[in-house]
GNAT family N-acetyltransferase
Amino acid sequence: MTLRPGTRADVRAAAAVFGRSFHTTPQWEWLIPDERARAGVLPAFFRSSFGHVRRHGRLMVAVDDADTVVGAIAWSAPGQWKTPAWRGVLAAPA
């Protein structure tokens, strides 16, 4: 396994990993009770978040020998943690 900076091409895979990781946490189960809806919303939410973080912070991905994203970590630079409201609207379910 290798840890490397995430690229734009990694955002979708990293968001899918986070979506699966957080799918059964109590907070997300309470917020989005329907499992199918949650399975669709979480990756979209993390895609939007990671796009912002990649530009204003850091996205690192863990990849296996085939360069498949198997994990990720993301953080924002000081003062850059707020995602603009319009990005949240884009990530919201229809």
Q: What stands out?
A: Residues 49 and 80 are 12 Å apart (CA to CA). The chain has a mean pLDDT of 87. Helices lie at 11-22, 26-31, 35-56, 85-91.
